[in-house]
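Students often ask why inverse folding is considered easier than folding. One informal answer: many sequences map to the same fold, so there is more than one right answer. In these notes we will look at a single instance of the problem. The structure comes first.
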């Protein structure tokens, strides 16, 4: 089976499980969603593939930063949202694994990551500001993500702006608005993409289906 393999601390548990299955004799091909996941999956024994136009990804598994009651997600806390979205979109099934603290009534307490082209980035941030205001948001904060004192760069070399917008009642509308802005490469809203979310709560799990 060919897997899309997510990024982040929760996805790491999934990769550990894969390592156990591989040790027991199963084999998996995988498309990793980040360089970090590439290394972890390789070490776990997954055969990493470079997808071509005929590649079928049977299942993608990834974490999330927030999950709303309609299984819309905010992702991108780990900075891999673009590759995660490409892989989730190409997969026959997309399963999200998350601890129950990620379950929210409305998205937006977690600042929305928006991936942008580095060229003239301040103009893109201004355009994001204008767009979200037009859509009725009063942004509390919009910050270029900084790590170790320098702007964070995604694996694709882009910047990330973390946007604290308050409650996002119509995520698909916001996603569409953001993606119209030249300079915005992708945003961390994953609307209508998750087929199943598995929440962990201590030793218990609960499953929510789309
Ligand atoms: O960055 C991401 O999109 C991660 O998948 C994130 O959504 C979940 O990260 P976590 O499992 O470390 O909380």
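Output (designed amino acids):
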């Amino acid at each position: 089976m060919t897997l899309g393999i997510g990024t982040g601390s929760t996805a790491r548990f999934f990769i550990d499980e894969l390592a156990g299955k591989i040790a027991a004799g199963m084999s998996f091909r995988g498309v990793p969603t980040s360089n970090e996941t590439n290394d972890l999956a390789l070490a776990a024994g997954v055969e990493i593939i470079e997808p071509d136009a005929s590649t079928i990804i049977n299942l993608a598994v990834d974490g999330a930063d927030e999950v709303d009651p309609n299984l819309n997600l905010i992702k991108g806390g780990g900075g891999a949202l673009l590759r995660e979205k490409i892989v989730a979109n190409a997969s026959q099934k997309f399963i999200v694994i998350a601890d129950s603290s990620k379950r929210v009534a409305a998205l937006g307490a977690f600042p929305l990551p928006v991936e942008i082209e580095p060229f003239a980035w301040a103009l893109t941030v201004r355009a994001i500001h204008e767009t979200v205001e037009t859509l009725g948001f009063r942004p509390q904060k919009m910050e270029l993500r900084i790590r170790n004192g320098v702007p964070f760069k995604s694996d694709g070399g882009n910047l990330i702006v973390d946007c604290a917008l308050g409650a996002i009642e119509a995520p698909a509308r916001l996603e569409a608005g953001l993606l119209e802005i030249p300079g915005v490469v992708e945003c961390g809203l994953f609307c209508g993409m998750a087929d199943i979310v598995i929440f962990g709560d201590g030793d218990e799990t609960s499953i929510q289906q789309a």
